[in-house]
Amino acid sequence: MSTSTTAPAALFIPVHEDGRLWLRLELPAGSPELDQVYMSDPNDLPLPDLVIDIDVAALQRILSVFWEFQQHLYDLAIPLGMTSAEFGGKLKLARLRLCPYVDDRAILSACFTNEWSGTEYALDIGQYLPVAVDRNLACYLAQLRQSLA
Description:
Shape: globular
Number of strands: 9
Radius of gyration: 16 Å
Structural class: alpha+beta
Distance between the termini: 44 Å
């Protein structure tokens, strides 16, 4: 019996911008990944496209705190770059949430609030990284920064 997994069509790519290293995920209109966006009010405006930018240095800084105190945390969040060219609402409080999971793993989510309606939007973005969201993520980020320095 053969088992295979399919990698997601979209993956984060490293981008140097404004003297910083970012991980960018671009989900253009029609991307099947946009169907996975959770909305606290399913009748609110859909998210037609999305660009997510993670500040690599900021993520590295919170990972050490997260792993040290994960048993005491519900989540840990940092600001996140998030834009949508076609969204009919207004993105507010864009944040990257790191939540403890099982077996020393974590869930990495991109979240924002539609300022006009109060609806919460969230997308599990760990699946779009080339490594698992576990203790090895910090090593991957350090190697990425070193290789692109």
